Amino acid sequence: xxxxxxxxxxxxxxxxxxxxxxxxxxxxxxxxxxxxxxxxxxxxxxxxxxxxxxxxxxxxxxxxxxxxxxxxxxxxxxxxxxxxxxxxxxxxxxxxxxxxxxxxxxxxxxxxxxxxxxxxxxxxxxxxxxxxxxxxxxxxxxxxxxxxxxxxxxxxxxxxxxxxxxxxxxxxxxxxxxxxxxxxxxxxxxxxxxxxxxxxxxxxxxxxxxxxxxxxxxxxxxxxxxxxxxxxxxxxxxxxxxxxxxxxxxxxxxxxxxxxxxxxxxxxxxxxxxxxxxxxxxxxxxxxxxxxxxxxxxxxxxxxxxxxxxxxxxxxxxxxxxxxxxxxxxxxxxxxxxxxxxxxxxxxxxxxxxxxxxxxxxxxxxxxxxxxxxxxxxxxxxxxxxxxxxxxxxxxxxxxx
Length: 401
Ligand code: SF4
Ligand code: SF4
Prior knowledge:
Helix content is 37%, strand content 8%. By secondary structure, it is of the alpha/beta class.
């Protein structure tokens, strides 16, 4: 479907969307998708019921929005986050909404260049606006590793943050620096909330985040008129309130002790659990299994690849090598390995699942109290430098059940 998106100069979002050729039916479908995303993490939220609007309520609130001013910066980054939004598998209503919203300043899609682009940014910065940031901020050597129009990324960010009513850090780079900030962090890369301290920063994490989650966060702000409730990492709870592991379709295999041991074994072909080949789903909060990617056509674990934990802070330093098993399984003590879990659970599946469910709930509560940068001991993370559990020495039979 091709839509005819023209710059939003007047009228409401609903009027401009209709002008672009989006039918009411498609707009309602888009709003139903937003309602589903808003509902992902609501069990973890204090006032869940009031934050779970229906598609009709979203359509009404979003439709009435008058043109908001959005400044969308791209700092030290790879443009993957923008691609995630704009190339999700077809021309979507999300794309229409974002094209309409980001028309004021966005380096990738705006027509203006050079001094005209700088003037657009300056004008937008002088007004009340929503600031969206992709990319990290390099601080080493006076920030020379990322400059635009002669200004360092830090200066650009500070200038744009001054009059911003909301700030979204979108993508792992903007949230904590991502791969650029991995040891030894040669450019001194940091996330937005290391620079902007006087305003809350909403962290839409992931490398890249799911396009629909980025749109949903913007839509949340527009429809609720305030920032969403966030977790200890600053991520919107409505989307990041659940672990991958808790909604993963391979979870029954985890509980039954059925693990892929190599990527070409029978278990891999049967769609068994990827924990043993490095899946970080038990330590990762993200709506990936529910929202999925590219018009809901798939997601990494669905395609047979372990989760690498890209929505978690410092995932590159904490979760590599990516194909190494997490130090221990959640809920089974730090010495547990998948071999032991499998052995234990094949005998007492029902009891094991019940215990696991209880522990998972406790772990979720514990995670809410976790502080930034702390290893998630509740999930089996070890503190940097701590002794990791020894690999299993006993030989157990794989469950073929
Ligand atoms: S978060 Fe990932 S996809 Fe987004 S800009 Fe950074 S490296 Fe690219
Ligand atoms: S360990 Fe990974 S593959 Fe296995 S159930 Fe959990 S999230 Fe799914």
